[in-house]
Every structure is written in structure tokens, then in C-alpha cells.
Amino acid sequence: MLSAAKITRRNVWRYYIRGVAFGDGCRPVGRPLKDAQQLAGLPPGRWMGLGLAALGLNAGSVVSERELELLYGELRRPDADRIERERLADGDSPQEARRATVLGRPLDEIERRGAIPLLAFDFTFRAQESLIVLWALGDETVRRVIETAHDRAIETTLRWLEEEVAEVRWSSGRERAKPPGLVVAAFRHFENRDGFPLLHTHCLILNRAQRPDGSWYALDTRRLLRNVVAAGTLYTLAMTTEVCEELGLATVPCEVTPGLPRDGGRRRRPGAH
Predict the structure, then answer these.
(1) What residues contact residue 96 under an 8 Å CB cut-off, 6+ apart?
(2) In contact, 133 and 17? CB cutoff 8 Å
(3) How confident is the model over 81-104, as pLDDT tens digits?
(4) CA atoms within 13 A of residue 91's CA, in its CB half-sphere
């Protein structure tokens, strides 16, 4: 399963960086992200996507709190602090030094136009219910197989989005191009908000990518969201196939029973008396 949510400037820091990065909870005030994740028994966030190279990041490396703040909170390069120091040392004004770190149009410029900046998307990948039960009740080997399949299915789906779906747009959408790749911060969780087992991963897809000349622009968000169902289907198929092959299992068709009529009356199930 795959769900998608928009991340705007009004909710990104408090909810996603202070909550989701910590584990869908409320991180203790003043506790560093790394320490909080260890306390919660969560793995650190990892960088994914073919767009990382242009930012000096490496796939699989740990996501730091400062990188999250700069990229997802300010739409600036993850090494913005270093760039600003070097620019100031070379004689640039503070405004010029800061502008050199911005990815695309500055946030304050967007807000002056009366718009709410769209910073990123939260694509949340969840294993299907039958695999969640198997994962929660299985032994170490079963859990490892399911978690590995989950991670690989996410990688497969993100690569498909990069190759077949993602586009950047400019000139009010009249111009568009395929970017080299996406920038994604992935956070794996093991429970839902109520503490019940739920293997899922939040993939925060930055709403900035490069066009052919190397400049950064927003993604075509409509095109991305139109393909959420297809991406979710690909993830589920890839994960289920690998788990079945590794554990010697098989899938069976699931019959969808009809719901209640619109008039609210009761509908008897076939065979019920």
C-alpha cells in the first residue's frame, strides 16, 4: 500500500522533522534526533534517489537533522552552512551568500506572492495486512526476509518514479523536462501511533529536482500524484513476489464482498441465515 501527503512550510518542521523522523511520535524537547531515534529503537533515516549526487549526498548515508532542516524546511542545499561561510569570506553580502544556497525560487519570494510553498511529499509505503501479521508473529528469519523485501520494493518503486514519472516544470508549466533523479529521505518505522505492529517507511520526496541546465525547479506535482496508485501496486507486487519466493509461500485471489446499500439497509451475506 502507498499513501501520499503534501508537506508544506506550515507543518514540515513540527510534524515531519520532529515527529516522523523520530517515529510518528513526539520527540523530547532538546534531545538530538540521533539520540531520540536510538531511544525509540528506530534505525536512522537514509538518503535515497538518483538526485543526491548533485547535492553532494550519497545513497544509503544517514540523514542528519541539519540536512533535514535545510532541505525540507528551507529548500536550501544540505551544505548551505559551508557555502555561506565561503561566500562571506570571499566578500559576498549575507543576502548573496544565502541566495547561493537556495534550490530554485526562495521561500520568502513564494510567500510574498500569497502562495503556500510545497516543500515535499510524504510517500508512505506499508506492507499489506497479511504480511504484517506474518512479520509480527514470525521468527527472526521471517522478519528479516519481509523487511528486506520491503526495502527492495521501495527501491524498485522509487526507481520507476524517477525513470517513468518524475518531471520538473517551469514557465507556469509550459516547459518541462525529465530530471536526473529524485532526492528522498527514508524513515523506517515498526509500529503505528497506537503501538501496534506496522512495518512502514516514510519516503520524503523533495519538491525540487534539476532540469538539463542544472538549475533546480519544482516537480510536476499533478503528474506525480496521478501515479500514486500505480506506484503502490508496483510496490505491493514486488514485495509480495519476493516474500513468496524466499519463504515458499503463495498468494490466492481475495474476493471483495459488497458493502452496505446507500440507503443504509442491511444486506445479507451469501450463505448467511
Answers:
(1) 87
(2) no
(3) 999 999 999 999 999 999 999 999
(4) 0
